[in-house]
Known about the structure:
The protein is an alpha/beta fold. The protein contains 28 helices and 12 strands. Helix 8 (155-169) packs across helix 11, helix 14 (303-320) packs across helix 15 and helix 24 (552-565) packs antiparallel against helix 25 (572-585). 54% of the residues lie in helices and 11% in strands. It is globular, with a radius of gyration of 30 Å. It has helices at residues 5-17, 23-30, 34-49, 69-80, 89-102, 109-116, 120-135, 155-169, 171-182, 197-210, 220-238, 255-271, 277-290, 303-320, 328-346, 356-362, 364-377, 385-399, 420-431, 443-447, 479-491, 493-498, 520-540, 552-565, 572-585, 645-657, 662-668, 673-693; strands at 54-57, 63-66, 140-144, 148-152, 408-414, 435-442, 456-459, 471-472, 543-546, 595-601, 609-622, 628-639.
Amino acid sequence: MFITSREKSIIELIVKTSGKHTAQSLASFLNVSVRTIQRDLKSAAKFLDQFQLNLNRTPADGLVIDGKNEHIYRLMQHLSSLNPTDETPEERKLHLLITLLHEGVSFKTQVLAKQLGVSTATLTTYLNDLAVWLEKFGVTLSRKRGVGVELIARESDKRKALAGYFSIHFHEELIEYLYLLQKGNQLNGLVFGYFSPQYLQEIDSLVSRTINKGQTRLADSDYIGLIIHMCITVQRSESQYRMEQTDQMVDKSSLEYRRMKQMCEDLIQKFDVPLTENDVLFLTVMLKGSKLQRANSIGYDSIMLGRLIKDVISDVSNQLHIYLSDDFSLFQGLLAHMEPSLFRLQQGMELFNPLTDEIKRKYPVLFMAVKNSLETHFQEVHFPDEEVAFIVLHFGSALLMNEEKAVIQAVVVCPTGIGASKMLASRIQQEVPEIEEVEILSINDFRNANLSSFDVVISTVRLPFSDLEYILVSPLLSEEDTEAIHDFLKRNLKKLTGKKQYIRPANEKETSSHTEKQGIHDLLEEIKDVHSSIEGILANLRVYRYQDTSDHREVLRKMVEQAEEDQLLDDSNKVLVELEERENRGGLGIPNTNMGLFHCRDDHIHELIFQVSHLEQPCTIKGMDGQEVQMKNLLLMLAPDSMSLREQEVLSLISTSLIENDVAMMIFSSSNEAMIRKKLEDLFLDYLQNNLIKE
């Protein structure tokens, strides 16, 4: 098994000092970061498995290797005969990929093998692995006799493939290098034999001060991913590899384009690199796919997505017999996450989630429920397991859980109850992690068994019971059999979880802490926020009718100026500019309705405002889905720049209720003030009953 010299040193030190060394002391001794040691410890633990040894920690965090003395002796003998390398297979494959991308059109295999310092057979294995990897990005690795090895693809796909390889295999190391550069350390040579430290440092600084400012923040993985893409773009452009014209529509008035354009201009000015407009457009798509705002800064105009997310939360709650429908923090978190996530999926951008397998293993039932709901409510989007796992984490946070309490129990029925059935039971637990317990029964024992104690019945033979639903499988458990079991569990998930408590029962809500109740002062503050929000919206509600104009901006001007006269805001011109900029950034027309929701937050606005104007002549505006909307009802929603969580919740409540059902859409587009006021009152009363009174 492969092992690096540092991993070998770690194992030898732990064996010699048994319990004396911690991860921190090893990092100091070997002159590397604790993060590096933690990563190496995982690899070392896998290496020890083949010697039937375990890497454990003492109560004081000291590291020990547990196992029989003869196994430890065999380990040390093996280590003494090893000649470890400081280069992992992933690093060698990276160097191979860089060589193919940057150093020529094609290479002979003998030349490549010599450059990498490996045998031709090892090179063939590496090429096979890379071919599978590259195929996901639309890159073909061609090997032809007499021609050699070459990569065939569009420039954009080559850049995505290289960025993806760095992100998945070297994400943590890149964080370390950026940290060292931020601290002023000088790095000798190229990072990973590719990145210029000077470019990395400047791009890191640019992204930090241009993107990570104000309310906008990138998640760590997206932050590193954007830096990787920008650095690759600069270095590929510098090497005269030109980006072709993108086939994706990019809105040049968007905030993402303007910020990326500015950063590219800064790089051109500082390094004199030949970045083109196509490079800017390509990087804008990357930024749009990675943008992640803080949850509490998400605009309340994502009506369509917000409605779908509420449906997903309700569906998951229903499947698992839990209550999450009124969890606004969960709703906000999902809204913040899924907006860029959907864009990323629609653009076919590679996604990496290092926790996917662990999440599927730890929360298999929740994972299945979330996947079910996403497939139901987002039928035109395919969510890979990596993306589902991210969304499961949001639900997991809302449930405050450590492990799932719902255990799915299966019974395997076979003619005798011995032999191949034990192998089948083991395979089922390996292939279907949702099933935690498997009992094996013969047909005779099964006749007398308590069937209510089993969630799923799996049989290798046809059973003589006409009223029993079971799954017929091969004793060897084929792929089709595994899919059949998964399908049964997905279809019957609600029934399966109904028999047992999942995490918390339906209608039983928890506070944000298991141990502490909310303080009386905090609760009173929330009640005050809710009271002032609801009172303000109802007091400031106006419904106007404009017969003499079909210019919606003129209508907006009149509404905002009237609000200023009513002392609800000051500097109406500034607010109008904000509204115009928001309209330029994206459509505000609500699809499949005759309504448009115009909104903004600004420090010149003093109170929450929700008002409606009915236009006798419809006007055409851009919809939230990019299509045109014939607007006859202009909905205006204004709010102060600084808002509490409860105030945001109240506004979100209104925006998502606009398309709650046909009746709601009819009311809000009716221009009937009494009906709209009654709808808002009912909405707020229901909210108070479910969110404050019960709490």
